[in-house]
Amino acid sequence: MFTNILVPVDGSDNSYRALDAALLLSEKLGSNITVVHVMEQVPITHIESEKLLSELLEAYKKENQDILSKCSEIATQKGLTINTLLLQGNPASVILNYSTKEKFDLLIMGSRGMGKFKELILGSVSSKILHHSPCAVLLIR
Q1: Do residues 12 and 114 touch, judged by C-beta distance below 8 A?
Q2: CATH code of the domain in which 77 resides
Q3: pTM for the complete prediction?
Q4: Most CB atoms within 10 A, among 5, 10, 62, 73?
């Protein structure tokens, strides 16, 4: 039934709970899990030093990659293997495009995350995905 599960994570507690739910389903159904994290575009105004810019971007990429590493560690502790992928762009659009392209059966994600303007637009990514996803969506609180 649910053989390919996509789990978008952003480092929030809700996203890690979504991963836990996906891992539980995977144990029961033998599903494949792909965890994606979407790096948002960095608003760069003007940095004169290309070396400094490069260092900042590398640190940002590492911070985002660390979220996926934590997900792999969580799965390994449960004796499971997951695929991880770091993508870049607008989170909702990128997740929707990727889930369509790769034909996932189920998308499991936290209902609220750690996006910018967290206090103003709570759940905007999950709301867009819920309304436009080509597959079933399970939101975790």
Answers
A1: yes
A2: 3.40.50.620
A3: 0.89
A4: 5
